[in-house]
Write a structure and sequence with these properties.
single chain, alpha+beta, 4 strands, elongated
């Protein structure tokens, strides 16, 4: 008798869930059919416009510099990649690689451990390097900088 009750309750629950699922399906198809196709197409275009396009990447060699701390015992080892804007080519950057390395090597040794140990400090450093590189090219040639290695010792 006890086993029969469990089977009956399970069957009723299953039928109830099936009816609810079917009802939601019917309601969903009715609601979607009320939205004009133009709005759906506009929403898809807006979503496409929101996706960002990542530019070509230009890897830089590893930089090892002493930090500007008073005792001079700390050093920074950083490797980064430059994301180029769409109109910029890798060939142009390869020609100006010594200037790019000079800009980075001029900025990195001026930093102290306390300035770059936090996430905000690294973001500030990234912004500073990005600004100086774009000044070098007289345009927004570098879209972003990604640190692929950042070790302070």
């Amino acid at each position: 008798m006890n086993k029969k009750i469990v089977i009956i309750i399970t069957s009723v629950a299953f039928v109830f869930l099936a009816i609810m699922g079917g009802g939601f399906y019917v309601m969903w198809t009715k609601i979607v059919s009320l939205i004009p196709p133009e709005e759906i197409a506009e929403e898809a275009l807006e979503e496409e416009a929101e996706t960002t396009v990542i530019g070509e990447m230009f890897p830089l060699d590893t930089f090892v510099v002493n930090l500007a701390d008073g005792n001079g015992k700390r050093y920074l080892r950083a490797t980064m990649q430059l994301e180029l804007s769409p109109e910029q080519t890798v060939a142009t950057l390869e020609q100006r690689l010594p200037q790019i390395r000079d800009v980075v090597l001029t900025i990195l040794p001026t930093k102290q451990f306390q300035e770059i140990r936090t996430v905000e400090g690294k973001a500030t450093l990234r912004t500073e390097i990005l600004t100086k590189l774009n000044e070098l090219f007289n345009s927004a040639s570098v879209a972003n900088i990604y640190f692929t290695e950042f070790v302070i010792q």
